[in-house]
Amino acid sequence: MNRGNHWISQIKRNYDLYLLLIPGLVFLAIFKYTPIYGLVIAFQDFNIFKGIGDSPWVGFKQFDRLFASDEFGNIMTNTLLISLYKIVILFPIPIIIAILLNEVGRMWFKRTIQTIIYLPHFLSWVIIAGLFVNIMSPQTGIVNGIISYFGGEPINFFMDNSYFRSIIVATAGWKEAGWNAIIFIAAIAGLDPELYEASKLDGASRIQQVFTITLPGIASTIVLMLILRIGSVLEAGTEQILLLYNPTVYETGDVIGTYIYRMGLTSMEYSFSTAVGLFESVIGFILVIGGNALAKRVTGKSIW
């Protein structure tokens, strides 16, 4: 049987499963692939009244403008630093949470802790931004209240460049660390319990079990999540930063996503903002491919 007939027989035999794929494929086609046509704006001097068809072509002019911009270096630095901080500081936290929860014996306590740490994920950034702005307010915030109680001067955290990146990383960790632990908890749950029993018979402690069974057992999951995280390194948390920053902290808080927002929607520089977005996507694609190749060479594990 040739390959074409094989595929046809597979579809006939599992037609109901293939039918379930249709809504997802339609969604991808409409909201993911169709908008790709709009990337041509990056190579035009786009005029909203003329449309894509009649707007003049300018080649790589928008990209030349981006790389020659005085703001480009600062924006790239901020984006890479914030993403690097999030990877180095926040990426290990869900793994640690998953390992600690796996060691909890009382199921009611384990479920209670899981519910508590998952909850922030379901709050929008609008709510979280308002919550932390109030908590860290220089006039009424509890943090500055504590500082003042011990004789310190109130700090306007959201207008101080020396604190802003730390606030971004801390709020992102508070919101997503618990939720991101789910996939690692599931990976640990899939490990063979007999491995732990055998290690106990050999006299291994809990700590030794973590380093000899748990971490090697979920290594492929860790690599997968790390590669995906590296691929989005230029997406430093646009929505979060937009809600927390202001012009006084552009020096340390303005990233590619917020720059696209300001140039595209505020200044109506549609072609320029599309070029910036395309640059971000291409770099992200290269990082995914490179991260996968590096992981395969170093650890022997990869996405494909």
Automatic annotation (TrEMBL):
Primary localization class, coarse: membrane
SUPFAM superfamilies, per the entry: MetI-like
Membrane topology: Multi-pass membrane protein
GO cellular component: plasma membrane
BP GO annotations: transmembrane transport
InterPro entries per the UniProt record, alphabetical: MetI-like, MetI-like_sf
All residue ranges annotated as the ABC transmembrane type-1 domain in the record: 76-291
Transmembrane feature ranges: 20-43, 80-101, 122-147, 167-189, 210-230, 272-295
Top-level lineage group: Bacteria
Assigned keywords, A-Z: Membrane, Transmembrane, Transmembrane helix, Transport
Subcellular location field: Cell membrane; Membrane
Family of this protein: Belongs to the binding-protein-dependent transport system permease family.
UniProt protein name: ABC transmembrane type-1 domain-containing protein
Organism: Paenibacillus agaridevorans
